[in-house]
Structures are given as structure tokens and as C-alpha cells.
Amino acid sequence: SLASALPYFSLEVLGIIHGFFEKNDDVPLFTHDKRKEMATKYPMVHLGTLERFLIARDYSVSKASQMFDGYLEFKKVVNTPGFSEKAKKTLGEGRRNIVTPMGRAKDGTDVFGFRMCLITEEMLNNADSVADAAAWTMEKYLQRTGPYRNPRVTVLAPTNAIDNAPNIPAHRLIPILRALSKKLGANYPEFAQRIVIFPFPWVGRVLWEMVKLFLDPKTSAKVCFLGGSQERHCDPDETMYELVEKDQIDPLFLKALPELKSSEPVPNKTNAESDK
Fold first, then answer.
1. Smallest Cα–Cα separation from 49: which of 154, 192, 132, 146?
2. Burial 135-153, CB ≥16 within 10 A → b, else e
3. Tell me: the pLDDT tens digits for 111-163?
4. In this predicted model, what pLDDT tens digit does every residue of 24-48 receive, in sequence order?
């Protein structure tokens, strides 16, 4: 069908294109009733965008529409004046930003780094705001990607501690991971191609079973674990480079943070670190 061949256009545009075909060309506009129904409801939205929401809701048009309407409301929020600056501050300034856009994975997906060790106590106490800010990052990524390329990301989530970071224990991060999963899953479905957690010790399996309870099954199925040294500032295991070339990863991503200047606020530390 024309819709399958040109998913980067809206029904409004496809209707015009379809009008140029002769009747005997036998080129149907749609061959999938659910896609047609969804496109008819949102004639000015790119079909590829609508398809992501349909897939997320197993091609239930009513559920996909409800999900998409929620995204449109959220999009209004992130586009309000001042939200961008607030989001940047919430995620952390400069190298203390917990979300780092990087290069491309070998499968062509865009790479984002997610540094759990940079999460502060303030972020934990404002998990929903952090989730909104992370979703704003995805909205900006979607705008940069444009309508002619399918937005797909590989997330690299190292577990190592690094110097001069809060390094809050992983088991305390569950509330913020839950908020992130809920917000991103609701508004940016089918974005994640793969979520790589490394290094991941076998004892972490227990924590993973707890976290998985709060994740959408489709999301949890995309999580993979790599081994490697848990020492601070170590390079990832060589298996990482089977997924992402080394030159596509920010060289400072796994390195120590510079010490804060006396004029800068000290990031929240864990109780264990404070007692040293």
C-alpha cells in the first residue's frame, strides 16, 4: 500500500499523492484497517509516528489513541516557555548531566548514555521532575531526527561509581527508574532498541528482578547485561564494542568528574561516603 511505502507522510499528504494515481494502477492507500482508522483520526500526523503508538498498544486503536492524546498533552508541557532551562538544570549541568547524547551504534541506532552514579538525593526526591526532563531530552531528539528517519536509540547505562559523583547505591534508585520508565514508555514508545547495563554482577540479578516489576514487559525484554570490571573509571568489557564502536562513545563518559570549585554546590553524597 501507499501508506506502507511512505510512512513518513501524513494521511493528508498521502491523500494528495494517491490522487495522482490512475484507477487501473491498483495502488491501495491502505491495506491495514487499524492503520487506516488511526490515520483517519489523526490525518495531519506522520503515519510512522502513529505506528509506534499502535505497536505499543498491540494495534488497539482506542488504546493507542488514548496513549497518543496523552503524549500530545505532555508535548504542550515540554514546549512551554522556560521548560527547557528547567529541564537542563534538573538533569545536571555539563558533565553532571545524567543523560548524554553520543554517536551511533553498529545497528544504526542513536546512542545515549545514562549515568546512574550522577543521580543526586535531590533528583531522588523529585523523581517525576527528572522523568519529565528526560522525556524533554527525547522530544528534542525527535525534533532533530525529523520525520524521515525512524527514531531508535541504544542506551548505555554503566553501573560503576566515579570520583566526585554522588554514587547512590543502586537499590535506592528504584523510584527514579520507575518514574523514568513510566514517563518515557507512555510518551515515546518503540524508541528503545536496546538498553545495555554494564558491568552487571551476578548478585545484581536480585535487584533486576525487583526493577523489572515496574517496567513494561516490552521494555524489559530490550535490556541486556554485560560483564566487566566494577572498578571506577574502567573501560567497558570488549563485548561493548561489538554493539558500539569506541569512537562513538564520549571519551569522558566513564571518567572521573572534576572536583567542584568552592563556589559550586556540593552534590548530595550517600551516607556511607559522608561518614568517611
1. 146
2. bbbbbebbeeeebeebbbb
3. 999 999 999 999 999 999 999 999 999 999 999 998 888 899 999 999 889 99
4. 677 788 888 999 999 999 999 999 9
Number of Cβ within a 10 Å radius of residue 262: 6
Cβ neighbors of 121 (< 8 A, separation 6 or more) are 166, 168, 268
Q: How far apart are CA 240 and CA 244, in angstroms?
A: 6
74: how many CB neighbours lie within 10 A of its CB?
Answer: 18
Q: What is the dihedral of CA 232, 238, 243, 248, to 10 degrees?
A: 60
Could you tell me the pTM of the whole model? 0.86
